């Protein structure tokens, strides 16, 4: 099974699509509370890592795919 990590996760569109196609999403980075609640409901096993600026890539669980949505801007 392929695994995935999601950066700038938002509402978890990439992880949801992956899960529906046999890709297990292990972790995500997002800082907004509401989108995190949404993804916790739909993908409860996915670990939420918080602020991307505080992540150490060498310490992240390894995945086959890293996806990301461009950060939203006003």
Structure description:
The structure is a single chain. β1, α1 and β2 form a beta-alpha-beta unit. The protein has 74 residues and is α/β, with parallel strands linked by helices. It contains 2 helices and 4 strands. The mean pLDDT is 94.
Briefly characterize the structure:
This protein is α/β, with parallel strands linked by helices and 74 residues long. 24% of the residues lie in helices and 23% in strands.
Q: Widest sheet: strand order? A: 3-2-1-4
Main β-sheet description? 4 strands, parallel
**Beta fraction:** 15-25%
Residue-averaged pLDDT: 94
Strand runs, count: 4
Structural class: alpha/beta
Could you say which overall geometry the principal axes of the C-alpha atoms support? globular
- Roughly how many Å is the radius of gyration? 11 Å
Distance between the termini: 37 Å
What is the H-and-E element order? EHEHEE
Which helices and strands occur, and which strands form pairs?
Layout: E1 3-7, H1 13-20, E2 24-29, H2 33-42, E3 47-48, E4 65-68
Parallel strand pairs: 1-2, 1-4, 2-3
Write a concise keyword list for the protein shown above:
single chain; 74 residues; alpha/beta; 4-stranded parallel β-sheet; 4 strands
């Amino acid at each position: 099974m392929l695994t995935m990590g999601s950066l700038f996760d938002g509402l978890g569109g990439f992880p949801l699509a992956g899960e529906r196609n046999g890709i297990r999403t292990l972790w995500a980075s997002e800082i907004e509370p509401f989108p995190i609640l949404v993804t916790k409901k739909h993908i409860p096993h996915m670990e939420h890592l918080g602020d991307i600026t505080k992540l150490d890539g060498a310490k992240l669980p390894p995945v086959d795919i890293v996806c990301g949505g461009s950060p939203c801007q006003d």
